[in-house]
């Protein structure tokens, strides 16, 4: 799926890194709770908020009616740490535990350049959790997260208070598969797509551009709804999806995304939304071609 890495690779700012982590945790949470509806997923901040920040004794989250889960949370509150010094607590980007406290999954999210350290830390944390099992006679099977981003989850548009209409920056999770990363590790890059001021030399059939413009202007997606819009367009226009995917393979995804945006002919100030819709459309076109 080449469009997932369209545009130059940029260094992530701290805010963009945090956005990438939050997005990955959101997706993992939805996946984990779909598999274990009675479970719980703690993000890094939620986890540290109950065991690392209180000024005196830590206090675990208590979930009514979940005795096995509460027992695990109490054990993590006291003993999920490095054991180098008092209150040197471990943390994970995301930690999912099912309701019966028999399955626990860890997720770490980082950049490609920090992948080796994240892999090392994931192994260390799993060993610590298994030691907590022995100390508290728990029965949790601690595992790396059994989830990876896929399809339209591979990209996430970054929104800022002062967006640049000529540029779209987005999180790309494709390095997770490109390397590939081991289970429990999600890798990301930050990319930018530039919207040129002159038409790009991509010959898109007029019938295709007319259909793109009509579909976009008649039912423009709201922010955050671009993936659903792209999926619906591909489902309703399979022939156009084939044409766009063929152009992407021949000419490169970045050029085709810009061509789609130009076909949309968005109103001034709407360029970022149009680019996100174009990326979603091309992602689903590639997914359909792969299937």
Main features:
291 residues; alpha+beta; elongated
Structure overview:
This protein is α+β, with helices and mostly antiparallel strands and 291 residues long. It folds into two domains: 194 residues, no CATH class; 96 residues, no CATH class. The protein contains ten helices and eight strands. Strands 1, 2, 3, 4, 5, 6, 7 and 8 form an eight-stranded mixed sheet that branches. Strand 3 and strand 4 form a beta hairpin. Helix 7 crosses helix 8, helix 7 crosses helix 10 and helix 9 crosses helix 10. The longest helix is centred in the first third of the chain and has 22 residues. The chain is elongated, with a radius of gyration of 22 Å. The mean pLDDT is 83.
Determine the fraction of residues in helical runs and give it as a percent range. 40-55%
Please identify the structural class as seen in this structure.
alpha+beta
Largest sheet: 8 strands, mixed
**Total number of β-strand segments?**
8
The radius of gyration over CA amounts to: 22 Å
Query: Which band does the percent of strand residues land in?
Result: 5-15%
Mean pLDDT: 83
């Amino acid at each position: 799926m080449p469009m997932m890495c369209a545009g130059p690779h940029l260094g992530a700012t701290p805010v963009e890194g945090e956005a990438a982590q939050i997005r990955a945790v959101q997706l993992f949470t939805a996946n984990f709770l779909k598999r274990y509806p009675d479970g719980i997923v703690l993000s890094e901040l939620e986890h540290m908020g109950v065991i690392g920040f209180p000024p005196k004794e830590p206090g675990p989250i208590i979930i009514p009616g979940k005795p096995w889960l509460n027992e695990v949370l109490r054990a993590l509150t006291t003993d999920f740490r490095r054991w180098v010094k008092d209150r040197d607590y471990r943390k994970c980007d995301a930690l999912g535990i099912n309701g019966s406290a028999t399955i626990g999954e860890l997720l770490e999210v980082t950049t490609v350049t920090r992948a080796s350290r994240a892999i090392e830390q994931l192994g260390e944390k799993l060993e610590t959790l298994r030691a907590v099992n022995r100390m508290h006679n728990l029965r949790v099977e601690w595992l790396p997260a059994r989830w990876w981003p896929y399809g339209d989850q591979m990209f996430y548009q970054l929104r800022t208070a002062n967006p640049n209409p000529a540029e779209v920056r987005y999180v790309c999770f494709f390095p997770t598969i490109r390397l590939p990363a081991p289970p429990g590790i999600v890798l990301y890059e930050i990319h930018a797509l530039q919207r040129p001021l002159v038409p790009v030399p991509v010959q898109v059939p007029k019938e295709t551009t007319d259909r793109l413009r009509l579909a976009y202007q008649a039912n423009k997606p709201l922010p955050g709804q671009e993936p659903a819009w792209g999926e619906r367009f591909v489902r309703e226009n399979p022939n156009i999806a084939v044409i766009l995917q063929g152009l992407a393979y021949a000419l490169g995804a970045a050029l085709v995304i810009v061509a789609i945006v130009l076909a949309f002919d968005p109103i001034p100030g709407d360029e970022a939304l149009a680019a996100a819709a174009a990326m979603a459309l091309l992602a689903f076109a590639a997914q359909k071609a792969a299937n």
